[in-house]
Amino acid sequence: MYFNNSITQYGLVAKLFHWISFIILVIQIPLGFYLVRLDFSDTRITLEEYHVIFGIIIFYITIIRLFYKLLSKSPKFLNSSFIGQNLIAKLNHFALYVAILTITSSGILKKLYNGETLNFFLFKLKFKMNFDLADKFYDLHIISNYALIVLISLHIFAVLFHKIFLKENILKRMT
């Protein structure tokens, strides 16, 4: 296995970024929906702290991942089943990054405008309270989560489409 990407598959660094992001998102998305239904309690406060910590971690991972992506070449696409497939794949990946950064940024800004101090590991930050802005960022946070769920579903559907209909195991490039 290569440390960096090759022409045919992703390297260890890209795979770690991908699967660590996947694992955190598999935890974060259901946890966020669960938190919305919880009444205010010590349990909710504790779970929300974990949700925020994981959100900040996924924010940092995504930023570092994007820098890595700019500095390294991605493997070439396999044979396309139709014209435009590569463009669709690139647009979906771009939209996934935008959705993740929108979710994490809006979640962070919602907490900060609620008057909370956030620990970003390297520094702490606190904003002046503005509940109207906090509510707007919360709405953006929720909408972006639904968009992310759709984009992840499309991503998984594409892998299954390649496997079942095109007989291409593109998942192997990322495992």
What is the structure about, briefly put?
By secondary structure, the protein is mainly alpha-helical.
What does this structure look like?
- This protein is mostly helical and about 180 residues long.
- About 70% of the residues lie in helices and about 5% in strands.
- It has four helices and two strands.
- A two-stranded antiparallel ribbon has the order 1-2.
- Helix 1 packs antiparallel against helix 2 (about 40-70), helix 2 packs across helix 3 and helix 3 (about 85-115) runs antiparallel to helix 4 (about 130-165).
- The mean pLDDT is about 95.
Radius of gyration: 18 Å
Please estimate the helix content. 55-70%
Mean of the pLDDT scores?
93
* Computed structural class: mainly alpha
Number of strands: 2
| Overall geometry | elongated
The N- and C-terminal alpha carbons lie at a distance of 10 Å
Q: What count of helical segments does DSSP give?
A: 4
Task: Output the keywords.
175 residues; two-stranded antiparallel ribbon; 2 strands; elongated
Note the topology.
Blueprint: H1 12-37, H2 42-71, H3 85-113, E1 117-119, E2 124-126, H4 131-164
Antiparallel strand pairs: 1-2
Helix pairs in contact: 1-2, 2-3, 3-4
